[in-house]
Amino acid sequence: MPIYNTKKLDSIIKHYKANSRKREDKHIEFCVGQNSLTDAINVAAKAIDENNKIHFHQRRVGRTELDSFAESLATLEDDLKNAISFDDIFDIVKKAKTEGINELAQFDTALRIGNFLKILPQKVYLTSSTRTGAENLLGHLFDKTSLTIEDFPASFNRPDLSTTEIEDILHIYKDELEFCVK
Q: pLDDT digit string (tens) for 112-141?
């Protein structure tokens, strides 16, 4: 078990809370504000906000691919209605994957729909940049796709830090996290 520089980890979390945490995700808020699950699926998969702007995570994917993804996901609306966990939502979104839709687009779409359905992640999901941050902190993770709060050092196990905020920290501070292991 590695020994962590708790002071450095606490400093990173404090910096995150002061500087990044307060940013609201307009795309999630727009999705949550939809009148129906049908509409929420459409805006979530297309990654658009109220101005029809694509989220910066999905801009490289392109509008045509996102539109195809939205059509594919719409066919699974009944499955999404019956989802009882974020894992269910994420699995359904992955089933709808079309050409060009990467793991980050899948996760972001599941997160938007999960917020609409009020079903939030209970684990930290590993996409490319969050995986880098997690491995810099925890070591090689092999084929893991998610982690529990208990997998992280004690600094992360706190009631005022959600799993999506931990994902943010892993992404934003991925390079700094390497220096938190003694």
A: 999 999 999 999 999 888 999 999 999 999
Which among 179, 119, 158 has a CA at the least distance from the CA of 21? Answer: 158
Phi and psi for 3 in degrees, rounded to 5?
-105, 130
Long-range Cβ contacts of 23-30 (<8 Å, 24+ apart): 26/50, 27/55, 27/108, 27/112, 28/111, 28/112, 28/115
| Interval 34-50: pLDDT, tens | 999 999 999 999 999 99
Closest C-alpha among 33, 15, 11, 31 to residue 180: 11
Residue from 156, 147, 154, 70 nearest 113 by CA: 70
Whole-model pTM: value is 0.90
